Amino acid sequence: MKCFWQCCSFALLALLPTLSLAAETAYRLGTGDEVRITVYGQPELTTDAQVSEQGTVTVALIGEQVIAGKTTAEAARLVAERYRNGDFLKNPQVNLLVTQYRSQIVSILGKVNRPGKLVLEGPTSLTQALAWAGGVAQGGSEKIVLTRVRNGAQERTEYDLQQLLNLDASDARPIWLQHGDTLYIPGEGRFYLNGEVNKPGMYLLDRPLNVMQALGTGGGPTARGSESSLRLLRVQPNGSVKELRAKPEDLIQDGDVLIVKESLF
Predict the structure, then answer these.
(1) How far is CA 21 from CA 6, 39, 129, 198, 214, in A?
(2) CA distance 141 to 8
(3) 50-107 pLDDT, tens digit each
(4) Is the whole model's pTM more than 0.70, yes or no?
(5) Is 193 exposed, middle or buried (0-12, 13-18, 19+ CB in 10 A)?
(6) 76 within 8 A of 96, measured Cβ to Cβ
(7) SS3 182
(8) C-beta separation of 155 from 127 below 8 A
């Protein structure tokens, strides 16, 4: 018996992450959504309605019910409870189905093939939204900027597309989108190599690069170049240009000029 309960406990613990993820990604009803509410064995109680600005729908016999912010299962349970508590039905079996999704909208802007507004019809990840927009257009970077309003403040998070694709392919949680999110795919950046480098010139910054990777793009330093005396010229927010000592792990930014100085020995 003890072994039985231990096995049940382990099974429940294994199930908890799945239950948590389902709760996190479940679609929440909102203003503008159209729903159909049916009661098993009671076709005359079928209700077709649109969620009002107050988050309500008018249901046969029981009147206005607030369902905005609830999942379809939660809203169905609410309606069933109202029927039961009002002595209209003893054991109502209620089903609520979204017939037209309208309340959850995400904007996709920038260098994508089909920019526009995506109406969420269920859990949608960042990469799925990008696929809906036709993927990154020519001249677009692999950097994706997600802007989200949280607690009245705007948050801005940058993601690398290749890392997101690897994330989707693994067991890790994808980045789920929320109503009001904005995705922006900027154009490719540029950086410049100068000095004692084998192939000086301008290069596309189409993915995250550190100083050593950028240097490798230009064929590395010449025999006279010194990796220990690398310098970065970087434009500051006020428009001025500042010279920085470059470390191998420093990330290159759009507009950077990486200079390889000549070795003194």
Answers:
(1) 24, 29, 19, 51, 39
(2) 49
(3) 999 999 999 999 999 999 999 999 999 999 999 999 999 999 999 999 999 999 999 9
(4) no
(5) buried
(6) yes
(7) strand
(8) no
